[in-house]
Amino acid sequence: MKKAVLASAVFAALVSGSTLAATVYKADGTELKIGGRVEFRGDFNATDKGVEIDGTMKDKTRARLNIQGKTEISEGLTGFARYEDEQAAGDSELTQRYMFAGLDFDGQAISFGAQDMAAVQVSSFTDIGQFTGLQKYLDASADHTTGVVAYRGNFNDALNLQATYKANSEDDADSYGLSAVYKLPMGIKLGAAYSADDKQVSSSSNDDAYQALFGLGYSMDALYLGATYSFGDTGEADNEEFDVIEIAAQYKLTDEAKIQAIYGKTTNKPDGSADVDYDNFVELGGYYSFNANLTSYVAYKINSGDKVTSGTETTRDDEDTIRLGLKYAF
């Protein structure tokens, strides 16, 4: 019985998307589910990077569709797969998010294809808002990354270990990651991850980019608190070090309503130049669920990051952002 629980936990983590995915086929040990979302997102006053909007609203509406399946091969051995695409408003093309298949051996899973790198299980401690996700800083610590071989193992429903390797045929830029999350009985979870990219940044330089990440989470009844901190180097020729911090708090007021307060900051430290705060913000959010399928929200992002330009274009600034959203999940 315990082995079945562990295998289910690993499978759920691998194919997690919409919790409302509908089972369209289930027979003879094989199961197929379809899920997704359609989500209106409108940014007012400024983009999520704090750049003032020309006009009334920047439309960030998106839709996702995922297909996931599993099949029992023998006792203790399960095959699984997941496919997910996203389409942005005004874009006729689909963007691939996940496309992987694998085998689960009693809670020890190996998978191949476009999927999350190992650090994501730690960065998710604070990636709960509209503007979070700062810890996915390198290719080696990003989500839905192509060309990944992954091991994910769950032990006694308390310790989760992950190892990922991304093979890149271009620019000698393979990536790898290792992570561990341990859950304590009193609602505390601890996480640590190490990610690295091999970068060929110039003909005379072959520096490695790396990121060390640490996380702490705490849940008690309606309250959730999370904090993540990382440091590392981008591997660029000017030895650009960085550190990233996210702190998140969420409180569930009722079964339908919850509020959030989040702080995030990303600082790059290039040699010979002043530090640059690419991100420095406070996010305040409120969410209301009409039912299990439909959720509305408003998020206010107070930007204080440094202004960044590329040529004549401003790519980051310090204007505040207001986001309104309405999400239908299925």
TrEMBL record:
Gene3D superfamilies: Porin (2.40.160.10)
Keywords associated with the record: Membrane, Signal
Taxonomic source organism: Vibrio nitrifigilis
Superkingdom per UniProt: Bacteria
Cleavable signal peptide: 1-21
UniProt name for this protein: Porin
Compartment annotation: Cell outer membrane
InterPro entries: Gram-neg_bact_OMP (IPR050298), Gram_neg_porin_domain (IPR033900), Porin_dom_sf (IPR023614), Porin_Gram-ve (IPR001702)
Lineage: Bacteria, Pseudomonadati, Pseudomonadota, Gammaproteobacteria, Vibrionales
CDD domains: gram_neg_porins
Pfam families membership: Porin_1
Keyword Signal annotated: yes
Membrane topology reported for the UniProt record: Multi-pass membrane protein
